[in-house]
Structure prediction request, 664 residues.
Amino acid sequence: MSGGEVSSRAVLAAAPGGAVLYQLREVTKRRSLGAGFVLQVPELTIRAGEMVALVGDSGCGKSTLLDLLAMVLRPDGAEAFTFQPAAGARLDVWRAWQGNDQNRLARVRGENLGYVLQTGGLLPFLSVRDNIALSRRLLGLPRQGWTEALAKRLGIANHLSKLPGQLSVGERQRVAIARAMAHQPAVVIADEPTASLDPIRARQIMDLFATLVSQYGATLVLATHDRQAVEHGGFRVVKFVLSQAPRDSSVLARVEG
Amino acid sequence: MARHGLSNVLRLALRDYWHERLLSLCAIMGLAAVLAPLLLLFGVKHGIIESLTHRLLSDPRNLELVVMGSGRYDASWFTTLGADPRVAFILPQTRSLAATMSLLTPGQTGGPAVTVDLIPTADGDPLLRRWGLPTPGQGQVVLSWSAARKLGLGPGQDLVGRVGRMVAGQRQEARLGLKLAGVLPLEAQAQETAYAPLDLLEATEDYRDGFAVPNLGWEGAPRPESPRVYPSFRLYAKGLDEVAALRDTLLSRKLEVHTRAEEIEAVQSLDRAFTIIFGLLASVAVLGYFAATAANSLANVRRKMRHLGVARLLGFATGDLVWFPMIQAGATSVLGVGVALVLYAVAALVINQHFGPRVCPGEAVCRLSPSHGLVVLVLTLLASVLGAASAAWRVAGIEPSEVLRDV
Prediction:
């Protein structure tokens, strides 16, 4: 760990929020696709209220890191990997994975995380309303008024009774954003949420997304290959440095940011 | 959370099932197409066997074991056989030559008397019970239809019984007043017979042997104090299955027995043949349905891998999500059984109406009981849930990170 990284973190610590949400140290994940790929996270701290952008080309490990943060992918090793959505509710993610405590991870995921995928994150057999309400329903939270308010904010109020298949790609992404935020999660994780949209629409949705997240007081972690898209929004940028592993031909990706 | 999880999986599974209703309908019809002919076959088997059994049971003679020739049966014989669980009714019978009586109408002076064979009866007599007739009490008889017709008497009317004997070359006779308790229809008894309490038969026998019967006021020599031994008896088995078994027991004691066991065995072997055929067909069908469900569920889960991955991302626990294919397979079996039962009901109606005139009231060619429907439902549910188990296993292994993106 270099001194430069520490200083950059110190700067970011001054960002709104403050409490440490994610703490990762020496987390590694090996994926055996093709020649092999290893993601290394020497140090990553994400604080509540931050807007973090994971920027890099496809195949650099953005999605792998997102999945690690979303607690759906088991890390191969970690010195520390914790998640603390609220004071006094600290989860040792690494230990939960070691103990194969999948149900606990699923519960924490359901309560604290919202996830927006590039496409196809909606269930095609549920109406827009039910898709948005699903996370609240799963948690047994009251749904009255919530869905409608969110839908109005995202400009999809007149589509609530439709099935996702009847909507345009852009409208579907709005629905996905609404669903990710419906249960007021501590973190919203988005994987290339605007990649399948034209630049103008992408910009609109990205702005709306950022506004909503800051209004709800959530933390946003977003992966994108489009550096420009996040330059204006006040994102903290996390980059990936790729190198060839010395011993074998696998690709080594180090997270820096 | 877990509670919400399972109820939400139920909801998702059913919503998806409805969303793909065309595919679901195909699966339902596929099941119904297998099940309806099976139900129909089983219904016919059940209906025919039940009707035949019903017919056999409706005639008590099918349960009767008639011992040929005469033997010497004492009280201990009747106690032993009476305690046999396969025996429904057993009653001693006196010597047949002594068990006759001439019947006259009251006040009849001339004309021929009607001579009837006396047959002993008691409470629980399957023959009288079958025809809803009362057990004749002291001084009462039940007459066969032909005997009653010759006397021109009906139930409740009085009649006179006359017993004759020769004592030292001298003709003597005794009389007693009787009441007609009931008339047995012709199909139950073609001969001229009278069913009476055993006491009366014993009295008749004693009188014919030259003894006195004090309680009827019949005179003669006093009967020696020796335990009574009977030459024969009336015997009825509990059910059709018991007839052959009881017959074999009696044969093993060197008794010659006449039964209708052959007719019963004919029905039973027909039942067995039906059962074997049905069992073979049903096994093939169950195996096929199991395989179809497994393939269908697996294909479904593969197709929906991504959606299931999304559900995992939303916080659905694996343990809840594995129910997704099970619930859908379960829905198919419930609805499939429902459709099959409707198809069966229509076909059964047609069959019963077509063949209806040839069967007796209360019988049907094709019949299933509600419990059969329940058994079919449970078995189908079991087969489909087991069939979907491999799909559930697949769901349990879903890694959201591997299915969410099109790599």
Chain A has one domain: 3-256. The beta strands of chain A are 20-31, 37-47, 51-55, 80-83, 91-92, 113-116, 187-191, 219-224, 236-244, 251-256.
